Amino acid sequence: MARPIKPRRVLFGPNVTYFKPRAVPLSTLEEMDLGVDELEALRLCDFKNLDQITAAKKMKISQSTLQRILASARKKVTEALIKGKAIKIRKKQIWIRKKP
Q1: Distance CA 15, CA 9 (A)
Q2: Can you give the pTM of this predicted structure?
Q3: What CATH number has the domain bearing residue 63?
Q4: Tens of pLDDT along 36-91?
Q5: Residue 3 in domain
Q6: Alpha carbon 39 to chain centroid, angstroms
Q7: Is residue 99 part of a domain?
Q8: Within its chain, how far is the Cα of 48 from the centroid?
């Protein structure tokens, strides 16, 4: 049996949760699911230019866990861009720990 996933602290709630290629009907598109924790990892490391140790501390996870989340997120975004897939940001409330 797999170990339960530790809650991640996510301090960013996206207003837009769906991205798709322009002029392509939704009915013909494949979707890539991007978790809100993956989006947070991308935001902290790639957008805010934080190193992985600092970003991991902000998310209350280990650096190795952050690295796995980041690798997964980058692979999904790259595949969506290269293959013309839609990106759907999924919000699993059990994983999100909001700032008080």
Answers
A1: 18
A2: 0.83
A3: 1.10.10
A4: 999 999 999 999 999 999 999 999 899 999 999 999 999 999 999 999 999 999 87
A5: no
A6: 3
A7: no
A8: 14
